[in-house]
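INFO  loader      accepted 1 record
INFO  loader      residues=147
INFO  predictor   begin
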Amino acid sequence: MANKNTDVVSLDLLTFDDLNALREQKIGSKVYHKKTNSGENKYKRYLIMTYTVEFDQIHYPLPLAYLGKNDSILMKNQFEGLKRKDQRADSDYMNANILPNKYEQLLAENENLKQELNCCYQQLKEVDVEAVLKDMKVLKKVVHNLE
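INFO  predictor   done
INFO  writer      dumping tokens
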């Protein structure tokens, strides 16, 4: 005897009205017709997962959250916003790659400036202040005499 696996799972997407029609069809003519097609129910959707085995069928209705009507302008604006966000992310990624190089350049420049500053300090230490002051006094006298 061959072993047959007849387990099947199927998915259906139904509206609230479709679900009620199936319910009425299953119960038959004993159904009381309760039409509550409010605006809220009009847009409800259900994902029906049906598990079928050899002699049985089990339905799992899963309600889906209603996110509103599809508004093409709203969707276009959302798409443009996501596109801008993606471009900013790309830009940030590029900047993140540039920053380490810039950091290394700044470190090298800082080191060069430190060396130049040390040279200036050395030159200042070598200057004879008293000699400079004497030279300034002499220059002031020369300027005063020329006037």
